[in-house]
Amino acid sequence: MKQLTDLQALINKAVDKLNFPKHPAELYDPISYILSLGGKRLRPALLLMACDLFGGDVESAVEPALAIEVFHNFTLMHDDIMDNAPLRRGQVTVHQKWNSNVAILSGDAMMVESNKLMMKVPDAILRRVMDVFNETATGVCEGQQIDMNFEHLDNVSIEEYINMIRLKTAVLLGGTLKIGAIIGGATPADAQLLYDFGVNLGIAFQLQDDILDVYGDPDKFGKQVGGDIISNKKTYLLIKALELAKDTQAVELNQWINAPQFDTQEKVAAVTDIYNQLQIRNYSEEAMQTYADKAFNALDHVNLPDERIQYLRLFADSLLVREY
What is the domain-level CATH number for residue 67? Predict the structure, then answer.
């Protein structure tokens, strides 16, 4: 089995070799730019890992793995426009460096490029792979739209939130693993189990992200703690708090949500205190563990030797053990 770091290095090398036309520069330069910003390359590395798990040729899976990386960065480019984000991985976002129209069109070209790369799988599995890829891409778009819809809704249920993060975040992880498994020669049943593992792992990871936003150490988490509270982002924690809060707690929570002006530190402290009173962290961690257990249960049923399963289990453990 190849190590994750080796697979990430393989992807980095392949990304560096991607060649886009020189003209028109405004269309292709932004693609090279966003791909040059780096990142952990976990999703394409996972595709290679899944292929390797089933004894497939990792080198033959590099182009579809690149397709996943290009697609993922396409979604980031368009997300940054919708969020009006000034920075991506510490660098100026594409729409700020060029303009929104350029970023939209370059993102569209990335979606085309990702399809071209994905279609380089052998003809015998092309239909299966493209079905998974297209279903995954549609799900990501649906999840982003649902997330934007949440901004204008007063009431969002836990079930609706879980479905949103499943689509926006988790299906890409599941789809990536399933495509890698198909390329590696997995049976349809095993490929589906790996998909289920990835989706549930992705949900657990996002729930952990919600928890870390409130309770994480900013130096270790790498983001501003309390950012979700400041922006009234409908996370698992806020939705659960709105569900459980009664009387004065409910009044205070809604006052902070609806306050047009506020001191950010005061708001974060006050809302966090309400979360603590309602034991929201415990509820969130229980939900996260539920989806982690579902992920590991799916993995346990994959028809592979224990030592190969353990490799993926260790990866999942490392993903879900982040310091608070």
Answer: 1.10.600.10
Query: Where does a domain end: 72, 95, 120?
Result: 120
Q: Please give the helix or strand (H or E) that residue 92 lies within, else none.
A: strand 91-92
Angle at which helices 62-83 and 171-183 pack, to 10 degrees?
170
Place of tokens 């015998």: 124
**Residue that the structure tokens 């289990």 belong to:** 313
Close Cβ partners of 68 (under 8 Å, ≥ 6 residues apart): 43, 44, 47, 114, 172, 176, 179
Q: Are 201 and 312 in contact (CB under 8 A)?
A: no
* H helix or E strand, kind and range, residue 176: helix 171-183
Cβ(140)–Cβ(165) under 8 Å? no
- Contact yes or no for 211/284 (Cβ under 8 A): yes
Q: Which residues constitute the domain of residue 59?
A: 1-120
Q: Are residues 98 and 217 in the same domain?
A: no
Report cis status (omega within 30 of 0) of the bond before 305.
Answer: no
- 8 Å CB contact between 88 and 157: no
Mark whether 132 and 68 lie in a shared domain.
no
How buried is residue 242: exposed, middle or buried, by Cβ count under 10 Å (0-12/13-18/19+)? middle
Chain position carrying tokens 């960065």: 73
Which of these three, 120, 154, 188, is where a domain ends? 120
What does the pLDDT look like over 25-57, one tens digit per residue? 999 999 999 999 989 999 999 999 999 999 999
The set of residues, in sequence order, having a beta carbon less than 8 Å from that of 114 and lying 6+ positions away, is 67, 68, 70, 71, 74
Give residue-wise pLDDT tens across range 128-160.
999 999 999 999 999 999 999 999 998 999 999
